[in-house]
């Protein structure tokens, strides 16, 4: 004869169904009034100078592109091939429609009648510090609006690294190449 087990799962289910206190706990919903605080509001403002987790921005160079109010000349972190690839991807998405794929200011929007932005290959922008580009991407300039809410900080720096690569690609000389590569080019010419 098979022994039947008591209905243990049924007993546990009945016991847990009595634990319904969580549904009826005292709490305030957003903007509910409260007699507890003197101003009658239940919602409280953050303590002054509170910084949200992950939002502590101690590195001025990284987050503003400036140090002591002056635009930085160097990148705040080393530029790698992965960062350049990310910069190219982000540039193609956000920048190339106006600035063109090679940074000459001949993007698709310009071809449809929008005023041409300056080429990255003019002397003024080739000589501009990297902090200048960070400031323009972050705050906008002339007809260009701010991309601060659209492009994260590190992606802005990656885009700037790619802009520098574009500038180098359009203004390089033979003396910039290693001797082996110069010899190969001379054979082709």
What would you note in describing this structure?
With 189 residues, this protein is an all-alpha fold. The protein contains 9 helices and 2 strands; from the N terminus they run ααββααααααα. The chain has a two-stranded antiparallel ribbon. Strand 1 and strand 2 form a beta hairpin. 14% of the residues are buried. The model has no long low-confidence stretch (mean pLDDT 89).
Write the layout of secondary structure elements.
Layout: H1 8-17, H2 60-64, E1 66-67, E2 70-71, H3 81-94, H4 96-99, H5 108-111, H6 123-126, H7 130-139, H8 153-171, H9 179-188
Antiparallel strand pairs: 1-2
Strand order of the largest sheet: 1-2
Elements, N to C (H/E) = HHEEHHHHHHH
Number of helices: 9
Oligomer: single chain
Largest sheet: 2 strands, antiparallel
Which structural category do the helix and sheet elements fall into? mainly alpha
């Amino acid at each position: 004869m098979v022994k039947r087990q008591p209905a243990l799962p049924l007993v546990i289910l009945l016991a847990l169904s009595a634990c319904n206190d969580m549904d009826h706990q005292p709490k305030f919903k957003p903007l509910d009034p409260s007699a507890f605080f003197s101003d009658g509001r239940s919602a409280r403002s953050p303590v002054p100078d509170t910084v949200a987790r992950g939002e502590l921005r101690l590195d001025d160079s990284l987050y503003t592109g400036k140090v002591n109010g002056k635009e930085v000349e160097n990148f705040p972190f080393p530029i790698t091939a992965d960062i350049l690839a990310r910069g190219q991807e982000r540039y193609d998405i956000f920048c190339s429609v106006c600035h063109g794929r090679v940074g000459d200011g001949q993007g698709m929007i310009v071809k449809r009648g929008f005023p041409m932005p300056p080429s990255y290959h003019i002397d003024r922008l080739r000589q501009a510090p990297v902090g200048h580009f960070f400031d323009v991407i972050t705050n906008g300039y002339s007809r260009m609006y701010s991309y601060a809410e659209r492009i994260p900080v590190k992606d802005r720096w990656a885009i700037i690294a790619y802009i520098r690569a574009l500038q180098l690609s359009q203004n390089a000389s033979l003396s910039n190449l290693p001797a082996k590569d110069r010899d190969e080019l001379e054979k082709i010419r």
